[in-house]
Design goal:
Length: 143
């Protein structure tokens, strides 16, 4: 009788611990910088302006956002898939290396900048586009 009581208590502890772990992961799901980059791409693909506004820095300039959305849309229209290959992280900013894999073409490597604002990661289009332009300028002068 005592053995079944111990097993019941152990089972209850395991169930409670499992529920606690799931609750922690559920709260953090879709909150990190990689998820933010993924949600940006999904919003561009589906032309979801509301989601785009949620994942972009609220203080962003329109030019940077338009350039980033246009470049992302063009890559997605060419059936590109993407992966975040690495991140350089500080307390409130991430630089993420995003590689676009295109069918029958060389991959395209970009660096995205995300800022953490009130515990939420957001794409910073101005900084991202500025880095992209610097990379293009460097590659064209290196030839």
């Amino acid at each position: 009788m005592e053995g079944s009581k111990v097993r019941g208590e152990t089972l209850l502890v395991c169930v409670l611990f499992g529920a606690m772990v799931l609750a922690v992961f559920w709260r953090s799901y879709d909150k990190g910088p990689i998820s933010t980059v993924r949600r940006f791409h999904e919003a561009v693909r589906s032309q979801d302006v509301m989601t785009l506004q949620k994942v972009v820095d609220a203080d962003t300039d329109a030019r940077g956002l338009n350039v980033l959305v246009t470049q992302t849309r063009l890559l997605l229209e060419r059936n590109a898939t993407f992966e975040v290959a690495g991140m350089d992280t500080s307390a409130n900013q991430v630089r993420a290396a995003v590689i676009y894999h295109l069918p029958h073409e060389a991959p395209v490597v970009t660096v995205w900048v995300l800022d953490k604002q009130r515990s939420i990661w957001r794409v910073n289009p101005f900084k991202t586009v500025s880095l992209m332009e610097q990379l293009v300028d460097r590659s064209s002068t290196a030839r």
